[in-house]
Amino acid sequence: MLIRMFRKIFTLAAFSGLLTGCALTGGSPGPTAYPPEYLPTVVALTGQAAFQTALALSPIVLPSDTPEPTFTALSPTPLPTQTFTPIPNIPLAQIQFLSPGSMSKIVSPVHLQLLVVSGESEVIQIDLFGEDGRLLSRTIDRVNRHETGVYATYKIPFEIRAAAETALLQVSTKDEFGRMQSLNSLRLVLLSSGITEETPAGNVIYERAVLFTPEDKAIATHGDLVVEGQFWPFNQQLVFLELILPDRTTSALRVLTMNGTDTQEFSTTLPYKVTEPTMARLSIRQMDPILGAPIYVYTQEIMLNP
Questions:
Q1: What CATH number has the domain bearing residue 253?
Q2: 165: domain range?
Q3: Residue 148 and residue 115: Cα distance in Å, rounded?
Q4: pLDDT tier at 92, thresholds 50, 70, 90
């Protein structure tokens, strides 16, 4: 296309030179003619100007209206964590940690929010243990018993020697005979300085244990109690199932072996001996290897008949 344009420009320039010569020979005044040796320069300049004009007049190709691609930021792949799938009729936890969540990074004090069903003693105990099992803080409070739980908040101060260490926060309740009625634990990371970073509370509104049979306040007879249920282990330590009498002695004990820390079902029997009808407390608990004490306890009452 540009070659044709140059040819037309050259032809027009040559024709213009011819017309100029004709005008001069006609005797009428006209523009001064370019010397013959300058004619190629005039043609070149004229062609260059025409080329620039052609470029200016050429349509500009704009980008299409195709929308720009959008990019979605990829979130980091979450690390494996314990998962718990509630089953129908699973009980809500007697001790629910509303805040902070598990493995929160905490600068003193711990701002604890609970929904707790106190035991028949109406006393709750809050303990904070360091990573080596030493007691960092203890709070004992009286809370009115309510079947749906009572909302409570506490500030738990602490001091640690290291820059940071893992810790175990425990809340426990007891009945009128001093037997452990419920106990739940929460793992935290304590900081000596810095900024508190709390995690969501997560799935802590359900009990780790659910008993399909017997029901709460059920009646057992003939010296044998069948126990079936589901348990979500806190760790890989042994799980104990026992019948505790009002004097806090154990009437029957069974060790449950769990396979890993996934939720799993169990079925067993507890043989017992009593001489008269006795209201016992059926307890399922798991131990903590550092504390040498329970890390989780769930109980319900059972009437034992001879």
A1: 2.60.40.2550
A2: 88-207
A3: 9
A4: confident
How far does the chain reach from its first CA to its final CA, in angstroms?
112
Does residue 81 have a pLDDT over 50?
Answer: no
Q: What is the pTM of this model?
A: 0.71
DSSP state of 224: E
- Rounded-to-integer distance, Cα 68 and Cα 59, Å: 23
How far is CA 99 from its chain centroid? 14
Angle (CA) 250 251 252, round 5°: 95
Segment 173-194 shows an average pLDDT of 97
Instruction: Write the single-letter amino acid at 257.
Output: T
The residue written with tokens 């640690």 in the block is 160
**Which residue matches tokens 């990573």?**
131
Whether residue 201 sits in one domain with residue 103: yes
- Per the DSSP assignment, residues forming a β-bridge with 37 are none
pLDDT tens digits, 257-290: 899 999 999 999 999 999 999 999 999 999 999 9
Residue 191 makes CB contacts below 8 A (sequence gap 6+) with 105, 106, 107, 163, 164
Residue 270: how many other CB atoms lie within 10 Å: 21
Planar angle of CA 274, 280, 283, nearest 5 degrees: 125
Residue at 61 is within a domain: no
Dihedral angle, C-alpha 197, 200, 201, 206, nearest 10 °? -160
Looking at the 3D structure of the chain, how many domains does it have? Answer: 3
